Amino acid sequence: MRKFLFAMLALPLFALSQNKTVVSVNRVFPKPDKIQAFEKALGDHAQKYHKGDYFWRVFFIESGPDAGGYHITEGPCSWDAVDKRADISAEHTADWDKMVQPYLTDKSSNSYSVYRADLSSVPLTEYSDKIAINHVFYKPGYQPEMEEAFKLLKKTWAASGQSIAVYESSGSGEPQYAVVTRYKQGLKERERDFRAPMKDRYEKENGTGSWVKYNDVLKMAVDHSWAELLTLKPAMGSK
């Protein structure tokens, strides 16, 4: 009985330690004359070495400053799994170096982010093939204001059927939130008349005059932002 009680008490700590909300993102840019060979090589690599916690979803970046690149998301996993991922086999590394790296330019980036369920209107793994990412960089000291703004936005997104996942950057450059809109019905959701105007929807959920207050927070707290559209490339990811 004592062992059973101890096990039950340990469950919350175990669940916390296994919290799979971490994703890593690697952005790579193939040589213009090697795109087809690169896409095949990356897909082969993903399907051999990226399973479970290290599952890959690969997107082509359609627009924005990184247009033409490939956005590779690994995870979700726990920070403990990230620790263990540091020990990649020699075979795995050799496959990348021999089969994928020769097709790449020198441009690349790596980052970690944590999914924030409290700020999102969609579960972490409820994905879509078409997405938009808005990268929001906030000024130092304004994280509480940004989080409160996202909590009010979440009410609006949920009420109007928008699937939006919010990720917080972790140890990866300037502090930012990546606001990922998942277009479950495709890019037609971007049409101006697909939903009521954002101001009307926001004030319906948060009260008259709340839209002005929201924009005042943005003017005060946001340093800069930029956006992009991406399309899933299923053949290039894990199976």
Notes on the structure:
With 239 residues, this protein is α+β, with helices and mostly antiparallel strands. It has 2 domains: 20-113, 2-Layer Sandwich (Alpha-Beta Plaits); 115-230, Alpha-Beta Plaits (2-Layer Sandwich), CATH 3.30.70.100. It is built from 7 helices and 8 strands. The protein has helices at residues 2-17, 35-49, 79-85, 90-100, 143-159, 198-206, 210-221, and strands at residues 22-30, 56-61, 70-77, 104-115, 130-138, 163-169, 176-182, 222-232. Strands 1-3-2-8-5-7-6-4 form an 8-stranded antiparallel barrel, surrounded by 4 helices. Helix 2 packs antiparallel against helix 4 (90-100). Residues 1-17 have low confidence and may be disordered.
Structural topology:
Layout: H1 2-17, E1 22-30, H2 35-49, E2 56-61, E3 70-77, H3 79-85, H4 90-100, E4 104-115, E5 130-138, H5 143-159, E6 163-169, E7 176-182, H6 198-206, H7 210-221, E8 222-232
Antiparallel strand pairs: 1-3, 1-4, 2-3, 2-8, 4-6, 5-7, 5-8, 6-7
Helix pairs in contact: 2-4, 5-6, 5-7
